[in-house]
Write a structure and sequence with these properties.
With about 325 residues, this protein is an alpha+beta fold. It folds into three domains: about 60 residues; about 170 residues, Alpha-Beta Plaits (2-Layer Sandwich), CATH 3.30.70; about 70 residues, Double Stranded RNA Binding Domain. It is built from nine helices and eleven strands. A hairpin with a 4-residue loop joins strand 7 and strand 8.
């Protein structure tokens, strides 16, 4: 409730600030007319430009009409076609989203991570807290393509890598998702990744199988069984919510997107580092010639460009 109250207060403050700016502009206009003072015109135009910029930045909020847009988000990244290259690409994307969370003041957490054999990460699941986390990150689901000179190729040739991103709303206690103890099979095993001797020697990793659906979730990133079990249950509940919504209203494509292979022809966005520099979102047409800035977490402009394309489009026809 406090999180919801904070979000409402922030929204109200934004619109009150705009209202005060408009009132101030009206007073300047009246003063300029009454006194025939044209010198105020520059100030009026400056203030109008600032209000217009504020309104344009707020326009994207019209895209947040979904039931779970205000919730926290769970974002999973999976390596696709490209082997070690794609696993390294997953690690780059993980850093990008963690930096975005840091830039936007959202608390982030690595719920689970499966390292690659040689380098990089096979898959990772991240949690993003804060207002509208899911509303913003839902724009990122799909296949992300990277083109660069390979650091793993002895001939330093150009390689193309793919990664698939899933985004789910985190299920809080106020959302009913029924999971009975009899529906769960819980296994404990040794963590396979880095984490120190304590993690390697003890059965800290957790695998939970939801028997009715066959869903399997593993977590091994924390140092205790209890913490890993809590993280696994978060992910499991999010995926069960996704299935329930798909059954009731065919919303699976909205929450996660239809299943696509992480390979050629399915990408929603391309990050090209060689032979030229360009990031292009193939849905909105947004382009940036500063991929380093994007990969450092500066995603707001690109995310907003996509969200604006969804305004006024019904969920069933996106």
């Amino acid at each position: 409730m406090m999180s919801r109250l904070t979000a409402i207060n922030e929204e109200t403050a934004l619109w009150r600030d705009i209202e005060e700016r408009i009132d101030s502009i009206e007073e300047l206009v009246d003063l300029s007319i009454a006194e025939g003072d044209s010198s105020l015109e520059e100030q009026i135009n400056t203030d109008l430009g600032q209000v217009q910029s504020q309104l344009e930045s707020l326009e994207v909020r019209l895209a947040f009409g979904g039931k779970y847009d205000e919730e926290a988000a769970i974002l999973a990244i999976h390596a696709g076609a490209g082997g070690t290259e794609s696993q390294d690409w997953v690690e780059m994307l993980m850093r990008m989203y963690l930096r975005w969370g840091e830039r936007s003041g959202r608390a982030t957490k690595v719920l689970d991570l499966s390292p690659g054999e040689e380098a990089g990460i096979k898959s990772v699941t991240l949690e993003f807290d804060g207002a509208l986390a899911y509303g913003y990150l839902k724009s990122e689901r799909g296949v992300h393509r990277l083109v660069r000179l390979s650091p793993f190729d002895a001939d330093h040739l150009r390689h193309t890598s793919f990664a698939l991103i899933e985004v789910l709303p985190r299920v809080d206690d106020n959302v009913e998702v029924k999971v009975g103890p009899e529906d769960l099979k819980v296994d404990f095993f040794k963590a396979s990744g880095a984490g120190g001797q304590h993690v390697q020697k003890n059965l800290t990793a957790v695998r939970i199988t939801h028997l009715p659906t066959g869903l399997v979730v593993t977590c091994q990133n924390e140092r205790s069984q209890l913490q890993n079990r809590e993280s696994a249950m978060k992910i499991l509940k999010a995926r069960l919510l996704e299935l329930e919504l798909a059954k009731k209203a065919e919303e699976q494509s909205r929450l996660k997107g239809e299943h696509v292979e992480a390979g050629w022809g399915n990408q929603i966005r391309s990050y090209i580092l060689h032979p030229y520099k360009l990031v292009k979102d193939h849905r909105s047409g947004f382009e940036s010639t500063a991929p380093e800035q994007i990969l450092d977490g500066d995603l707001d402009e690109m995310i907003n460009a996509y969200l604006k394309t969804t305004i006024g489009v019904s969920e069933g026809t996106r």
